[in-house]
From TrEMBL:
Short name of any one Pfam family annotated for the protein: DHquinase_II
Protein name in UniProt: 3-dehydroquinate dehydratase
PROSITE patterns on file: DEHYDROQUINASE_II (PS01029)
Superkingdom of the source species: Bacteria
Organism: Flexistipes sinusarabici (strain ATCC 49648 / DSM 4947 / MAS 10)
Keywords: Amino-acid biosynthesis, Aromatic amino acid biosynthesis, Lyase
Site (Transition state stabilizer): R17
Name of the coding gene: aroQ
Gene3D superfamilies per record: Dehydroquinase, class II
Record-stated family: Belongs to the type-II 3-dehydroquinase family.
UniProt keyword annotation of tRNA processing present: no
Pathway: Metabolic intermediate biosynthesis; chorismate biosynthesis; chorismate from D-erythrose 4-phosphate and phosphoenolpyruvate: step 3/7
Length: 143
C-alpha cells in the first residue's frame, strides 16, 4: 500500500515554533519517525512538505498513492483550493494535526477538509500520524 503524507506551511519549523503547542521534536524527527513506522508496517510512504498552496494542490493531483494523510497546517482553515484538489482526486484521506486545534483559537476550530475526510485525528503529536498510518493499514488489510 502507498500512502502520501502532505504537510503544509510552517511544519518545517517544528522544533522551533510554539513548542507549547507542537512539542520540541524537529521536522526531521517527525519524518524519520513516520518512515520508520511505515517500514515496520510494510507501507510505501512518501512524505511531502510545502509552504506553498499551489505546490500542495499539484502534489495531490499528481500523486499515485492510494490515500493521503494531510496536515495542511493553516491551509486547513483557509484553503478551498486544497479541499477542491482532494475532492477532485477522490482518494481517501485523513486530516491530522499535531496540536489539539479545538483547545486553541476559535479560527482553528473550522476546517475546509474535515467533512470530506474519512476521519480527523488531532492533539496526539507525532502519534497523530502514526495512528493515521495504522488506520490505513488496518483498513486495507482486514478484507
Ligand atoms: C496544525 C494546526 C494548525 O491550526 C496550524 O496552523 C498549523 C499546525 C497542527 O498540526 O496542529 O500549522 O495543523
Amino acid at each position: 500500500m502507498n500512502i502520501t503524507i502532505i504537510n503544509g506551511p510552517n511544519l518545517n519549523m517544528l522544533g522551533q515554533r510554539e513548542k507549547e503547542h507542537y512539542g520540541d521534536f524537529s521536522y526531521k524527527k517527525l519524518v524519520d519517525t513516520v518512515k520508520e513506522h511505515a517500514a515496520y508496517k510494510s507501507v510505501d510512504l512518501d512524505v511531502f512538505q510545502s509552504n506553498h498552496e499551489g505546490e500542495i494542490v499539484s502534489k495531490i493531483q499528481t500523486s499515485e498513492s492510494d490515500c493521503f494523510i494531510v496536515n495542511a497546517g493553516a491551509y486547513t482553515h483557509t484553503s478551498i483550493a486544497v479541499r477542491d484538489a482532494l475532492a477532485a482526486v477522490s482518494k481517501p484521506f485523513l486530516e491530522v494535526h499535531i496540536s489539539n486545534v479545538y483547545a486553541r483559537d476559535r479560527f482553528r476550530h473550522s476546517s475546509y477538509l474535515s467533512d470530506i475526510a474519512e476521519g480527523v485525528i488531532c492533539g496526539l503529536g507525532i502519534y497523530s500520524y502514526i495512528a493515521a498510518i495504522d488506520y490505513f493499514v488496518h483498513k486495507y488489510s482486514s478484507v
